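#onboarding

Welcome to the new folks! Below is a worked example of what a typical request in this channel looks like: someone posts a single protein sequence, and someone else replies with the predicted structure as tokens. Don't worry about understanding the tokens yet, we'll cover that in week two.

Example request:
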Amino acid sequence: MVDVTGAAELLGHEAEMLAVRLGHAQRLGNMGWAEWHLHTGETIWSDQVYVIFGRDPGDGPIPLPDLPEHVEPADVATLDRLLWSVVQGVEPVQAEFRIRRGGAAADLRDLRVVLEPLSGPGGTIGMHGVIQDITGRRRAERMVSESRRQLLEARERAAEERHVMLALREAILPEPVGCLDLQQTKIAVRYVPAEKTANLGGDWFEAASAADGRVLLAIGDASGHGLPAISRMAQLRHALVGLAMTGQGANRLLAWLNDLVMHQLKDTTATAIIGHLDPETRVFAWGQAGNLAPILVRGGEATQLAQPRGVLLGAAPGSPYELATTRLLPGDQLLLFTDGLVERRTRDIDVGLDLALAAARRVCGHDLDGSLDRLLADIGGPNPEDDACLLAVGILS
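Example response:
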């Protein structure tokens, strides 16, 4: 004999559990279902649709004729097309539009609605479907889109700023094409800008014949990045060119530049190497201010010159600068460089210096210009974080 009461209780329990699961699914998906009957005017909403519309269940669902009053005015036409498509067709249709939840204009919600017609003996008698609140998804998409737009604008601004700064550098410090050919001497120069726009800095060089027949050779790096560093670089280089007209030695020129930085370029420091090369005697008389010593390439071997005493420009007033002399031989190459050539955030500076020494062994005085390109490639190419200057001198046989 069938236990009718037990079976009914079981079916009732399963129906209750199914209803609970459906309620969970609607809350998790922030979606609900609705029906509108055209002939009777009856409207049926699931509990979650009340939540989506911010409506008290005690007020009942919104009748279909009143629904446009809750839709954002700009989207009413979208709702009209959706409803017309449902009435005219037999397939489900969908659309997205915004509503003012709870009648508050500020609380706009994005809805995705999928509807299909309810068919009866005389044709379409109503419609039913699913309503989902997709406000969070659309808001996230708009945030991503806005972030992408801002990123593109920032990249465009950075590219424009880089172009302006490089153009300004070129106007202040034009880079010679190829080598500068002097008496029994070749000179080649490379300025290597940082890969990152914001890190264009104050590296500079000078190579020119002096009135007494010597060759003035200098490199330097003013602290900072961007236009302020380029401005400081220009002041230092122009000051050196003027001071060099006195014919004073490199150590005296460094002392004057130190006074300039201390008194005129506040909150600034700079490194520099300044030297004079006598083409007749091949003696290079030089001094340095906080810069790595030059590399001498002789007979296929590369070594750094012994470094004379000298502190950063702007570090202390009245600092003494020593003068060192190096006699160059036919076939020698001398490489002056700023720290951006060998220093990388991802490696120790000694590692970069070892790479530069190894690459310098292959520098050829008869192809000095091409040798610098190969040297730069061998040590890892442009520095992402800092610009660099490289000045090479070749003594012809």
